[in-house]
Structures are given as structure tokens and as C-alpha cells.
Amino acid sequence: MSASVTGNRKLRVLMTADAVGGVWQYALDLAEGLRLQGVETILAVLGPTPSEDQRETAQKAGIELLLTSLPLDWTADAPHEVEEAGRVIARIARDPAPDIVHLNNPALAASAAFEVPVVAVCHSCVATWWQAVRGGPLPDEFVWRTDLLRRGYERADRLLAPTAAFARLTAQSYDLKEIPVVVRNGRRISQIERRASSQPFAFTAGRLWDEGKNLACLDRAASRIAIPVLAAGPLQGPNRVSAAAHHVRALGRLSDAEVARYLAEGPVFVSTARYEPFGLAVLEAAQAGCALILSDIPTLRELWEDAAVFVQPDDDQALAGEIQRLAQESEARRALGEAAALRARTYSVEAMSAGVLSAYRALLPSRTDRSPLEGAAA
């Protein structure tokens, strides 16, 4: 059965996304997972234009992209830019006549009037980022962004978050009446065949320019060990923030397939993040059977307890020791990789799609027809 709304008409969703970080992978995987259940998704892309390989991935998944060039809330120069972007998305939503608007950029709801229910996802925000990375009073440029996001959260009909720890933190930070519903992220599994490298190496991937990813700690750890430490991702961000790599070998931005090829070699995967609401790169590494060394922060503990080695986010000495140990102990590395892969199976695209579809259905009039995916979510 399809996820039909009335008669043979399928459930139609207008979803926002950006091509800068993990939200892009989340949106593509979710849209593809929903499509397999008969849900039509149009992806309205804000911020920088997706790269050629990103557009090709969307095309192969059968996902329609609408490139808006609208500013992101965290790169905009003034609140009116975000408010106007929200109003533009609301106008766009009238044409395809969706049944649900899914905002991966919840601040867009702050001043926009949507004619259908709005599901917003709490992926991350500058207020919780600042609390985890810097601390103290918010700078002025973060105050207005936080206010817009609070208004967006208040106007959404349903809020979702990828982990219970981040859901609680978001509710506390924004004084929400209800804690966001937890729907854990999923990631499609790479089909690239595993081929263990003859020489151990450590690997990380993500927005390296983001201070919350804490590349500096990994860079210091790399100076203490002999094995190579490779890092995939941009060192320069769209918000004019940058990071430096002195001892880590920076690979620059790689396509999903290129990252998958590195992971297929079985490196020790490292995340030194101070702030990570979920961590799709960690999930990709776990799916590939990589041993994980992760920051000891609540969200990563929640997801990977007993399936990873944990170190304090800024303890480069302990981090270097664990990387070196796993590089030398192949059996420990293999066992940890198997534990990570087993845990990763619970964070599937199917489970994510089921949870999100359940949230959609809760906001729509009751229907007699139910899809297999919705039944799995019940």
C-alpha cells in the first residue's frame, strides 16, 4: 500500500535543506526512504548551490531539487533576510500544494504563514553550539538568530530531534512546552566493498572549519603519533570561519563515494567534537565496520555506548594513546568495528523514515489506509 492521502493521491511533502553539512545527507536519505513508501518529496535547497556530485546523487535517488539561493539562518547578515526567506518558502509551498512542510531550517517558520502543518527538525542551533563550544553570554549576532529560531520552534506543529540528549537540551535552551519527539537519523549504506588497508591510519570527516568539530584536538594528537591521520572536509566555511591543519593531512571536500572508499579501508575513525547533535559521519564509519574513538559527550554516549572508545574532547594525549593502541592491536580494532557495525544497524533509513512518516500522519486527518512503513512505526 502507498502512503496515500485521498484516493490514489500520494502524500506530498515540501522539505527544506542546505548542501553545506549533514542536513544534506539527512534530507536525501529521508526523501529517498519516503519515496519508497509512495511519498513525494520536493527538496527546496537554501544556501550555496549543491555541487555536481550532490546534484547527481539527488537525481539518481529520484528527488526533485528546487534551488532557491535563499540565505541560511546562520549565514544571513540580518533577521529580515531569514524572515523573508521563510515567507518565500511559504509562497513556494502553495504551488505544489504539499500536505506537509518539513523544515530542516526551523527559523523559516518564525514569520511565515504556512497553509499546511509544519514539521521542524532540531538538527543544531547557535545557542546550544555556543553553550557547548564557548560558554557565557551569547554574542549579539547569535541573539537575534536564537530569537528567530525560538519563534520558529513555537510556530511549528511538531518538533523532531535526532537524540534524546539533544531534545532535552533544546527544550531547556528554548523553554519549550514539550520536548521534541526523538527520531534518530539514518544513513544509506555504501555499496563499496571493504578492502582493509595494509597500513593502519586514522580518519575523520565533516565540516572541519566548525570549531564545534574540534579539529585542533585531533591535530595536536596527530603530532604525537607516527601513523597518518587523514581529515576529509572543508577547512573554510561559508560563514568566513576557517580552521588550520598542521599535523593532520587535510584532504579537502570529498564526495560521498570518496569518503566511503576511505572508510572501506578500515581506518580508526575519530570524532573529537565538542558539539554533535547526532553525527552522520560517525554512523557512516560504523556502517563500514570502523573502530570508533569518540568525544565523551552526552549525544555520542547515547548513541554509541559500549560500541566505541570515549575520550574527553580536549585530551589530545589520551586520544593519541587510543589511536596508537588500536592501530597496533588488530584484534581489538576488529572487535570494536564489529560492535559499531552492529549498533549502526539500528540507525537505518527505514527506521528514520518510519518515525518521520509517523510524525506527518499525526498531523493529518485520520485515514483508513496505512503504509507498511507506518505500521512498522506504530
Give structural notes.
By secondary structure, the protein is of the alpha/beta class. It folds into two domains: 4-186 and 348-377, Glycogen Phosphorylase B (Rossmann fold, 3-Layer(aba) Sandwich), CATH 3.40.50; 202-344, 3-Layer(aba) Sandwich (Rossmann fold). The protein has 14 helices and 15 strands. The strands form three sheets. It has a seven-stranded parallel β-sheet, sandwiched between helices. Strands 12-11-10-13-14-15 form a six-stranded parallel β-sheet, sandwiched between helices. α1 crosses α13 and α7 packs across α11 (316-328).
Mean pLDDT, nearest integer? 93
In angstroms, what is the radius of gyration? Answer: 20 Å
Order of helices and strands: EEEHEHEHEEHHEHEEHEEHEHEHEHHHH
Helix content: 25-40%
Strand order of the largest sheet: 5-4-3-6-7-8-9
Question: What's the CATH H-level superfamily name of the largest domain?
Answer: Glycogen Phosphorylase B
Strand content: 15-25%
Biggest β-sheet strands, sense, barrel:
7 strands, parallel
Number of domains: 2
| CATH top level assignment of the largest domain | Alpha Beta
> Which oligomerization state do the chains in this entry correspond to?
single chain
Residue stretches low in confidence (pLDDT < 50, at least 5 long) are: 367-378
Q: Separation of termini?
A: 16 Å
Per DSSP, the total helix count is: 14
Instruction: Assign the CATH topology of the largest domain.
Output: Rossmann fold
How many β strands by DSSP?
15
User: Can you tell me the overall shape?
Assistant: globular
CATH architecture of the largest domain: 3-Layer(aba) Sandwich
Structural class given helices, strands, pairing? alpha/beta
